């Protein structure tokens, strides 16, 4: 539906401009969603890094306890397991 000179009519031109505006608005919404998603991912990376640091510190403390305590930690573990078993046996009766 071009006019005789080969140029699009004013109605077609307005329609194309409206379509472009709609497409730009949709694209802007997608860009905003991607930006929010990237901020969420960045925040989760920080929390995962914090959990890794906590685990590293805990493992270091466990290594220090095992190295310093000799076999004493095993006796604590055995005593704890025996106490739990005794409690379960008493609860079953």
UniProtKB/TrEMBL annotation:
State the membrane topology: Single-pass membrane protein
Q: What is this protein called?
A: t-SNARE coiled-coil homology domain-containing protein
TM ranges: 73-91
Q: List, alphabetically, the SUPFAM superfamilies matched.
A: SNARE fusion complex
Q: Which organism is it from?
A: Aureococcus anophagefferens (Harmful bloom alga)
Where can this protein be found? Membrane
- Give the record's keywords alphabetically: Membrane, Transmembrane, Transmembrane helix, Transport
């Amino acid at each position: 539906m071009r006019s005789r000179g080969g140029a699009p009519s004013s109605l077609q031109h307005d329609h194309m401009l409206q379509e472009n505006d709609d497409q730009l608005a949709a694209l802007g919404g997608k860009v905003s969603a991607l930006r929010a998603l990237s901020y969420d991912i960045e925040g989760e990376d920080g929390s995962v890094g914090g959990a890794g640091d906590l685990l590293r510190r805990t493992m270091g403390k466990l290594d220090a306890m095992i190295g310093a305590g000799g076999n004493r930690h095993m006796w604590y573990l055995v005593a704890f397991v025996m106490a739990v078993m005794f409690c379960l046996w008493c609860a079953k009766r």
